[in-house]
Amino acid sequence: MITGLYFGSFNPVHIGHLVIANYMVEFSDLEQLWFVVSPQNPLKEKKSLLQDYHRLEMVRLAVEDDDRFRASDIEFKLPTPSYTIDTLTYLEEKNPGREFQLVMGGDGLRTFHKWKHANLIVEKYHRLIYPRPGTDREAASRLPNATMVDAPMMEISSSFIRQAIREGKDVRHMVPAKAYTYMREMHFYEK
C-alpha cells in the first residue's frame, strides 16, 4: 500500500490541510494519507505551539470520518526534536511492505537542504510537492525523486487562523467542524 506522510504541527489543522490531503489521495498513487503530528519541528520556534495531544485530537476529529486518512502520533514516541528521516526509518521497520511517500509544501523546499540526511530522503523516498505561495514550480518540477503536483493553491495558514481567533474573528468555515468545536470549547488561541 502506498501511504503519504503529511508532516506538520497542525496548529491548528484547517481546511487547507484537508483539501491538500484529499487532492493527494485522489490525484496521485497514494492509497492512504497519514497526518503526522510533529511535537517539535527543529527548524521552527515552539512558543505558540499548542500541546501535542490537543493538536493530535483536533486532527483526529478532522479526519475520523474518512478512512483514507489517519492521525498519527508516531513522532510523540520518538526522540525530540523530530527528524523526518528517523520517523521514516521507524515507520518502515514497523510496516514492512508499505511504501511511504512524503507530502510537502513547496515552501519547505527552501530549507530542505537543512533537513537531517536530506540526500538520503531524496534517494529513498518519493516526494509529492504541492504549491504554496512563492513556490518556483519550474525548479520544483526538476527535483530528483519528486513530483510537483497541480493541487489547488491554499493561502490559508494556521498562523492566520490563530491570529484571527486572537482578534475575535469567526473562523468556523476554515477549520473542520469537529476540530473547530473542540478548539472553541477549549478556548484555544484566544489569548
Write the layout of secondary structure elements.
Layout (H helix, E strand, L loop, with lengths): L1 E7 L6 H13 L4 E6 L14 H12 L5 E4 L11 H11 L4 E7 L12 H7 L2 E4 L6 H5 L4 E3 L9 H9 L10 H9 L6
Parallel strand pairs: 1-2, 1-4, 2-3, 4-5, 5-6
Helix pairs in contact: 2-7
Main features:
191 residues; alpha/beta; Rossmann fold; 7 helices; 6 strands; globular
The CATH fourth-level homologous superfamily = HUPs
Unreliable runs, pLDDT <50, ≥5 residues? none
H/E element string? Answer: EHEHEHEHEHEHH
Highest-level CATH class: Alpha Beta
Beta fraction: 15-25%
First and last CA, distance: 43 Å
Range of helix content: 25-40%
Largest sheet composition:
6 strands, parallel
CATH topology: Rossmann fold
Count the helices. How many?
Answer: 7
Radius of gyration: 16 Å
Shape: globular
* Strand order within the widest beta sheet: 3-2-1-4-5-6
Mean of residue pLDDT values: 93
CATH architect. name: 3-Layer(aba) Sandwich
General description of the model:
The protein is built from 7 helices and 6 strands. The protein has 191 residues and is of the alpha/beta class. It has one domain (2-154): Rossmann fold. Strands 3-2-1-4-5-6 form a 6-stranded parallel beta sheet, sandwiched between helices. α1 (15-27) links the parallel β1 (2-8) and β2. The protein is globular, with a radius of gyration of 16 Å.
